[in-house]
Amino acid sequence: MIIIKSPEDIKKLKTACKISADVLKYAGEQINAGMSTYELDKLIYDFITAAGARPSFLGMYGFKGSACISINDEVIHGIPSKKTIIRSGDIVSIDVGAYINGYHGDNAYTYKVGAVSPSAEKLLRVTNECLHLGIAAAQPGNRVGDIGYAVQKHAEENGFSVVREYVGHGVGRDLHEEPEVPNYGKPGHLARLVPGMTIAIEPMINEGTANVKVMPDGWTVKTTDGKLSAHFEHTIAITEKGPVILTCADGDF
Ligand code: MG
Predict the structure, then answer these.
(1) What is the C-alpha separation between 34 and 26, in angstroms, rounded?
(2) Who surrounds ion ligand 1 at CB < 5 A?
(3) Disulfide-capable partner of 130 in 42, 145, 187, 203 (CB 3.0 to 4.6 Å)?
């Protein structure tokens, strides 16, 4: 069932989303070559708890980190580890959520560390564009399939591929609510978007094949060809006037 939120619900959700966005921006400023993903995750935990919130992902389905930190050919769900060292030239996806006042926020951004390859630059740019095209398609009266279509079209026109196995979702009192929001699809298909729906749109776009595999740790998802993958995400609200991004940090982002 898709839960329609009242203006009061959305106000509370916005508080969670603001902390989620602030910590994501902060994490991007803290990334440095030589740092482990465990250290980065510790900074993320400290930031979220100092803001009076709880990391949404910590303990969820048994996850051990406050954020999912996925490097290069890792698509999503990278587990923070003392053994995983961030290096110059890497692209680092951080997916993080904060829970406060009964609501979750959820967002992701893929950062570059130092100079990266032209192909990596293009992948990051196009994936972020896919996210914003998906958001632009999230107009009241449109359907969930319109979002996926917009994302897929832009990714594939640029020579990239769309991960099928993992999708966006409703966000609210639960981190993962209905509906599922695929990053591929047909216009005019799936649920109709109506004011009060709050969803996370999160394209996962690959440089090469769309195929992915789960590693033996049971969490980390990688591309099967070892090529790069990028992930950008916002939590948005559908309003009468159109989509509104709730995961907005202070300043430019
Ligand atoms: Mg999400």
Answers:
(1) 18
(2) 106, 200, 202
(3) 203
The pair of structure tokens assigned to 225 is 């060809």
User: What is the number of domains present in the chain?
Assistant: 1
What is the spatial distance between Cα 13 and Cα 105, in angstroms, rounded to a whole number? 7
Asked whether the beta carbons of 34 and 124 are under 8 A apart, the reply is no
251 assigned to some structural domain: no
- Structural domain boundaries, residue 40: 7-245
Instruction: Give yes or no for a cis peptide into 195 (omega within 30° of 0).
Output: no
CA dist., res. 45 & res. 64, Å (int): 11
> Residue 213 in contact with residue 221, Cβ under 8 Å?
yes
| pLDDT at res. 251 | 45
> Residue 63: which of 83, 40, 80 has the closest Cα?
80
Q: Ligand 1 mean position to 117 CA, how many Å?
A: 27
Residue 214 forms part of a structural domain: yes
Q: What is the pLDDT of residues 124-145, one digit of tens each?
A: 999 999 999 999 999 999 999 9
Task: Tell me how far the alpha carbon of residue 4 lies from the centroid of ligand 1, in angstroms.
Answer: 18
pLDDT class for 250, splitting at 50, 70, 90?
low
CA–centroid distance, residue 233 to ligand 1 (Å)? 7
Instruction: Compute how many other C-beta atoms are within 10 angstroms of the C-beta atom of residue 2.
Output: 17
CA of 53 relative to ligand 1 center, distance in Å: 17
- Cα of 181 vs centre of ligand 1, distance in Å, is 10
pLDDT in tens, 51-83: 999 999 999 999 999 999 999 999 999 999 999
Q: What is the DSSP string of 172-241?
A: SSSSSEEEEE-SS--TT-SSBP-TT-EEEE--EEESS-S-EEE-TTSS-EEETT---EEE-BEEEEEETT
Query: pTM higher than 0.90 for the full model?
Result: yes
